[in-house]
Amino acid sequence: MANATRLTEGNPFSTLLRFSLPFLLSNILQACYGASDLFMVGRFSDSVGVCAVATGSQVMQTITGLSIGLTAGGTVLIGRYYGARQRQNVAHAVKTMMVVFGAISLALTAATLLLLDPICRLMQVPPEADAATKQYLFLCSCGILFIVGYNVISGILRGLGDSRTPLLLIAVACVINVSTDLLFVGGLRMGAAGAAVSTVLAQLVSLVLAVLYLAAKGLLRSYRRSAPCFRLVAAKGVLSAGLPIALQEGLVNVSFLVITAMINRMGLIASAAVGVVEKLIMFSMLPATAFSAALAALTAQHFGAGLMGRAKRCLGLAIGMSLLFGMACMLLAQTNPASLVGLFTTDPQVIAQGSLYLRSYSIDCVLVSFVFCMNAFFSGGGHPVFPLVHSLIATFFVRIPISGLFIHAAAPSMLSIGFAAPAASLLSLLLCLWFFLRHFPNPSQKAKCAKPSPLPSRT
Question: How many angstroms separate the most distant Cα atoms in the chain?
Answer without folding.
Answer: 66
